[in-house]
Write a structure and sequence with these properties.
Layout: E1 2-4, E2 7-9, H1 21-48, H2 55-76, H3 80-99, E3 106-108, E4 111-117, E5 120-122, H4 124-141, H5 149-167, H6 172-188, H7 193-213, H8 218-228, H9 239-250, H10 262-265, H11 277-310, H12 314-339, H13 356-374
Antiparallel strand pairs: 1-2, 3-4, 4-5
Helix pairs in contact: 1-2, 1-11, 2-13, 3-4, 3-5, 4-5, 4-6, 4-12, 4-13, 5-6, 6-12, 9-11, 11-12, 11-13, 12-13
């Protein structure tokens, strides 16, 4: 017998025997690529100011180490315990999202979305994504029979409240992720097309109202207009996209070589170690490197959705589907905005972009996926 998370399992049904190695390997390789890409994107600018060229990399590796422990800890617990505490975690996250707007929160470039802790900035919005996934999974798993329109709007409210709190930080990108999580879970739950259409129409009306009352900021509108016409004033709102496209185009098929990217070394692409990290890979490793990176995300998403389909209970299915939807939206939007098919929204590339909060949240998400997969037979 084997005791895991307080439960005894026969030897042939030990959860560790059902670990998903492909999911774990994809996350590890993406994280390693991220470390090298972050160094390439930052070492020149740090050297220019006589700072440690590996400063960002060292911090990222620190978070990677913590993230690795987090994966193991979360995976070792039975994911069904998450359902028990989903409500508490959800409410606690809402409290944190409110508190971050008070003086105890840290403001950076006009956005107040972090807590300063021991020299590190932690964003509660990253925890909120997982809290919403868990809460939606817990709520929908208790619905008996087909979802009614009332069920759909209740689920939408669970996602909309933290999304609104994140949006006013302001953080448009992360608030969009909540919408993707909601839609992904509702689709897997078998929501009718008619109800999804009503939900979409309601969202359009609310977005239009947001424009009318000034809830949508001027710079957010500028990002949308620059997406529609990037050549209009490229030194301002369209500059990031233009420089990103130049970097990607200069990589060609095989790339310019590691640490040899001209756009990267000359620091032409703003926020290249975070929002535009994909341009580093594309410029230095070319089309081959970019496709390889996307292939790794393909493996990660395939395994995540497969875990959702194999789960024996509704909560596990919705939990895995929400995580898979979160990863899919972040990957698609981040890559899409660098190649010019999506507006710039500030969404990081999972496991690759620099950032401790995002990395820790993604690590916990991988741990949850592993937990669901490891216990699919119990």
């Amino acid at each position: 017998m084997d005791l895991v998370a307080g439960k005894a399992y026969p030897a042939e049904r030990r959860p560790i025997r059902h670990l998903d190695p492909l999911l774990l390997l994809a996350a590890i390789v993406l994280s390693v690529i991220g470390v090298f890409a972050i160094y390439s994107a930052t070492h020149q600018s740090l050297t220019a100011i006589d700072a440690d060229p590996a400063r960002f990399v060292k911090r990222q590796i620190t978070f990677l180490a913590v993230g690795a422990v987090l994966v193991l800890l979360v995976a070792s617990f039975d994911y069904r315990m998450v359902k028990v505490y989903a409500g508490l975690v959800y409410v606690s996250t809402l409290v944190l999202l409110v508190l971050v707007r008070t003086p105890i929160g840290t403001s950076v470039r006009g956005s107040q979305r972090w807590f300063e802790l021991a020299g590190f900035q932690l964003a509660p919005s990253e925890l909120a994504k997982l809290a919403v996934i868990a809460m939606l999974a817990a709520f929908l798993s208790e619905v008996r029979g087909e979802l009614t329109l009332q069920d759909v709007f209740r689920a939408s409210g669970l996602a909309a409240l933290p999304a609104l709190l994140v949006f006013i930080q302001p953080d448009l990108g992360t608030s969009i992720v909540f919408a993707a999580i909601l839609v992904g879970v509702l689709v897997v739950a078998g929501t009718s097309i008619r109800y999804l259409g009503i939900l979409a129409l309601t969202a359009v009306v609310l977005i239009f109202a947001g424009f009318q009352v000034g809830l949508v900021k001027e710079y957010q509108i500028a990002r949308l207009t620059s997406f529609l016409d990037p050549e209009n004033d490229p030194q301002r709102t369209g500059y990031n996209r233009t420089q990103a496209e130049i970097a990607i185009g200069s990589g060609g098929v095989l790339g310019l070589g590691y640490l040899q990217g001209t756009q990267t070394n000359l620091d032409f692409v703003p926020e290249q170690h975070t929002d535009f990290i994909f341009t580093v890979v594309a410029e230095e490793f070319g089309f081959v490197g970019a496709v390889t990176l996307l292939g790794l995300y393909g493996v990660l998403l395939w395994r995540a959705f497969r875990i959702a389909s194999l789960s024996k209970d509704a909560f596990g299915t919705y939990l895995a589907a929400g995580i898979a939807s979160m990863f899919a939206l972040q990957m698609f939007v981040n890559v899409g905005m660098t190649v010019g098919i999506m507006p710039i929204t500030g969404i990081p590339l999972p496991f690759v972009s620099y950032g401790g909060s995002s990395l820790l949240a993604n690590s916990a998400a991988i741990g949850l996926l592993l937990s669901v997969h490891m216990r699919r037979l119990t």
